[in-house]
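Model it.
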Amino acid sequence: EERENIIDRDFSTKSINQKWATDITYIHTLRDGWLYLSSILDLHTKKIISWDLSLNMTNELVLKTLNRAIIKYKPSNL
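Modeled.
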């Protein structure tokens, strides 16, 4: 299901928890092969607020990272 692009490339913010950005980074290791780092960046503070590492790149990895951020930071705009 495609979602509406509500940010529309406007990354400016006036407060913390106003806008978050997500990313998955591929990390190659000698022991485990590819690992996947899911992270969430608060666009106001420019800090990583949640992350998780997995052997598999799945929707569950991203949702776990997002759920951790929501529980920890309790954004009011949800």
